[in-house]
Amino acid sequence: MLISLHWFIFLLNLPVAAWNIYRYIMVPSGNMGVFDPTEIHNRGQLKSHMKEAMIKLGFHLLCFFMYLYSMILALIND
């Protein structure tokens, strides 16, 4: 996105990328990954993980339609 000078899209995706990097770095050693199935059910973290997943789903849906609009606009203008 930076190479093609799409600054708005880059700045829109930057917080989500930073959050994903932060979550990956903060995984305790010994866990299978960010969403360790045994830890989610043992600690009752399922509700918070579902909330985070729904927020990410909404963000990606918004980005999808923005990208689709940009692509259609680029095809019409050419």
From TrEMBL:
It is found in: Membrane. GO terms for cellular component: membrane. The chain crosses the membrane at residues 6-25, 57-76. It is a multi-pass membrane protein. Keywords: Membrane, Transmembrane, Transmembrane helix. GO terms for biological process: vesicle-mediated transport. Signal peptide: none annotated. SMART domains: Cornichon. The keyword Transmembrane helix applies. It holds the Pfam family Cornichon. InterPro entries: Cornichon. Belongs to the cornichon family. This is Protein cornichon homolog 4 isoform X2.
